[in-house]
Amino acid sequence: RGCLKEISSISNLTRLQIDLCDLNLLLLLLQEFDTQKLSGFHIVVGKYGRKSSDLSRNYQFQNSFELYFSHDEPLDDLSSTEALKQMFDPKVTGIIERTENLTLGLSGSACLRNIVPHLGGNGFIYLKKLDLSKGQYECLIDSTTNPIARHAFENLVSMKLRDLKLNKIWYGFLPPWCFSQLQEVELNYVSALEFLWKGPIEPPSFCN
């Protein structure tokens, strides 16, 4: 913890690569640290028992964020709620909204209504790769009441949804250019999926 405070005190820090065991440590690091000055980052949180990340190699994306809840010991409702509360901390969402490569491995009991606008108010306009596993979602994007979502996923190239509960990917009007760069989609063990999107689609969405 002392090292994290020292890292956050480096005034000229512009790039950050770090692997942390839980969100508490990330919040400690971000307590007095302005993430907006970071020009690049690769942050891994809660990689329980998984193969250690090689943070020394070159990455395809300039900004990456990986968050894993414990799968070996499923979280109860209270623990899951507390973990989600930490994830919605403005310091954390400020990083998530800027990421190009986002991986979320939630617990089976973790429930998110959507990730846009609840988790990414800017519509993830920088996001190129999305990898979701575990957890329960009503939809990924709800544009019925959120005009910002008109720009959601316009630069997304790859989307992987695995071992989770999801009713639909998009709810509401699908505006131009959304998913227009999409090249790869993987749906694996996605339960409760009724349809991919619900609402009108305006060209050139899915134009590729």
Could you walk me through the main structural features you see in this protein, from its secondary elements to its overall organization?
With 208 residues, the chain is α/β, with parallel strands linked by helices. Helix content is 16%, strand content 29%. Strands 1, 2, 3, 4, 5, 6, 7, 8, 9 and 10 form a ten-stranded parallel β-sheet that branches. α1 crosses α2. The longest helix has 11 residues, at 77-87. The chain is globular, with a radius of gyration of 17 Å. It starts with a helix and ends in a 10-residue tail after the last strand.
Q: What is the topology?
A:
Layout: H1 2-8, E1 15-20, H2 23-30, E2 40-45, E3 63-68, H3 77-87, H4 90-96, E4 101-105, E5 111-112, E6 129-133, E7 136-142, E8 158-171, E9 184-191, E10 197-198
Parallel strand pairs: 1-2, 2-3, 3-4, 4-6, 5-7, 6-8, 7-8, 8-9, 8-10
